[in-house]
Amino acid sequence: MTRPLIALPARFSTSASALRYRAEVAARSLVEAVYRAGGEPFIMHPAEPYEPSRLARCDGLLLPGGGDIHPRHYGADTEHESLYDVDDEQDAFDLALAAHALEANIPTLAICRGFQVVNTVLGGTLTQHMPEDHRHKVHPVTVRAGTLLAKILDEEETTVSCYHHQSTATPAPSLTPTAHAADGTLEAAELANPDRWFLAVQWHPEDTAATDPAQQALFTALVRASG
Question: Residue 92, Cβ neighbours under 10 Å: how many?
Answer without folding.
Answer: 16
